[in-house]
């Protein structure tokens, strides 16, 4: 006997934006790549925001105020966007280094604030109209979003029986549908025989096949005991992903980078996205002398040895003992910086070109090449005369 996986009873009001924003942003980026909606972002850029990194060895950050963003980046972006909508202003970074902002940067930020406040209010208004929240599996979710599937069949149980014409359904936390009509049948077979099969299960060629699909979710006994609902739906003009796309279009790459927690200074490149934490850690842990047999000292541990005597506060700790112990200490330092940094930048630093740089609240930090493929070194807190003092402080 097949195991039964009935769809859960639909969620009811109130539906909260914070519970939807992540799936909505993901849906919007995918729709942009598919050419179904315009975000003003390239397909490659959208794909980079969606790219996962299962090998991330560090953490999952639930706070947009610190830490290098974990992949997929859209999750950090969604959280930051929600907090910005809630507060009315874009999440800001800490100014640890004099920014020397361009004259138009502040104006640009003010425009972003205004746009996010207006579009965010529109998102909240649409969310408040939702009566029921339900989940639809693929491929039928995509068929619903494309308007090819116009009837959703469900067993008449729980809150499904409360759904009526005029109600707004939120499907998979990202797609809104308006109910046109609800018709009741004694069984899925009867529903499939009376209604147009292609409107209920597009691509399914026979009623027998359709009944088998529903049997994966509902037992025959449950179906006969409760009956079946044919829920007619249409896609309303106002859509969450349309508003989300307009927010992304208004932000552009620079606004997205700011929501990810980046500073913008002279020499910053707002078109770039940060490397994955696993890439940063991997290059940090690469051997200093790979061609020397038995040498295990890492690039990171070697770089740390240059800094242990520069901080009078003893921030870097002591680098002593065996190479294995030095490596372990260096990993502790870099993992703390990756998890707790409050300032990030993708900017030009001579002679390295564009670098990825992070710093914590105290100004201590680290620097990699722009793609994270090379660890450049650790950083002391910024000081105007830092170079002349050998960065000792």
How would you describe this protein?
With 393 residues, the chain is of the alpha+beta class. It has 3 domains: 12-129 and 241-259, no CATH class; 132-235, Hypothetical protein (Archaeosine Trna-guanine Transglycosylase, Chain: A, domain 4, Roll), CATH 2.30.130; 277-379, no CATH class. Helices cover 37% and strands 14% of the residues. It is built from 13 helices and 10 strands. The protein has helices spanning 21-33, 43-50, 73-87, 105-128, 140-145, 188-194, 197-200, 207-215, 220-226, 240-259, 277-284, 299-305, 323-340, and strands at 11-12, 132-134, 151-155, 168-171, 175-185, 228-234, 343-349, 353-359, 365-369, 375-379. It has a 6-stranded mixed β-sheet with strand order 1-2-4-5-6-3. Strands 7-8-9-10 form a 4-stranded antiparallel β-sheet. α1 (21-33) runs antiparallel to α2, α1 (21-33) packs across α10 (240-259) and α4 runs antiparallel to α10. The protein is elongated and about 80 Å long. InterPro entries: ASCH_domain, PUA-like_sf. This is ASCH domain-containing protein. It comes from Salvia divinorum.
């Amino acid at each position: 006997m097949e195991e039964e996986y009935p769809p859960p009873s639909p969620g009811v009001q109130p539906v909260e934006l914070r519970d939807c924003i992540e799936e909505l942003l993901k849906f919007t980026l995918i729709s942009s790549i598919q050419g179904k909606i315009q975000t003003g972002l390239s397909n490659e850029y959208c794909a980079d925001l969606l790219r996962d990194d299962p090998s991330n060895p560090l953490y999952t950050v639930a706070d947009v105020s610190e830490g290098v963003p974990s992949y997929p980046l859209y999750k950090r972006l969604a959280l930051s966007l929600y907090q910005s909508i809630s507060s009315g202003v874009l999440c800001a970074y800490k100014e640890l280094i004099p920014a020397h902002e361009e004259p138009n940067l502040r104006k640009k930020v003010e425009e972003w604030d205004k746009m996010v406040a207006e579009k965010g209010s529109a998102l909240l208004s649409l969310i408040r109209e939702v009566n029921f929240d339900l989940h639809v599996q693929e491929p039928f979710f995509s068929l619903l979003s494309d308007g090819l599937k116009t009837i959703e069949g469900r067993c008449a149980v729980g809150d499904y029986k409360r759904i009526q014409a005029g109600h707004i359904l939120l499907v998979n936390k990202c797609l809104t549908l308006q109910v046109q009509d609800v018709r009741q049948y004694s069984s899925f077979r009867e529903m499939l025989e009376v209604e147009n099969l292609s409107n209920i299960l597009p691509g399914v060629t026979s009623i027998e096949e359709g009944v088998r699909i529903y049997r994966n979710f509902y037992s025959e006994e449950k179906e006969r005991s409760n009956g079946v609902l044919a829920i007619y739906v249409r896609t309303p003009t106002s859509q969450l992903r349309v508003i989300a796309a307009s927010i992304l279009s208004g932000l552009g790459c620079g606004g997205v980078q700011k929501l990810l927690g980046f500073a913008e200074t002279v020499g910053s490149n707002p078109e770039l996205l940060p490397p994955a934490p696993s890439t940063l850690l991997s290059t940090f842990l690469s051997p200093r002398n790979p061609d020397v047999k038995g040498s295990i000292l890492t690039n990171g541990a070697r770089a740390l040895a240059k800094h242990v005597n520069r901080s009078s506060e003893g921030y870097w700790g002591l680098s002593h003992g065996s190479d294995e112990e030095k490596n372990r200490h260096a990993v502790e330092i870099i993992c703390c910086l990756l998890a707790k940094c409050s300032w990030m930048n993708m900017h030009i630093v001579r002679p390295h070109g564009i670098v990825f740089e992070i710093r914590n609240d105290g100004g201590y930090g680290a620097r990699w090449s722009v793609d994270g493929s090379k660890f450049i070194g650790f950083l002391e807190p910024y000081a105007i005369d830092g170079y002349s003092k050998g960065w000792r402080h």
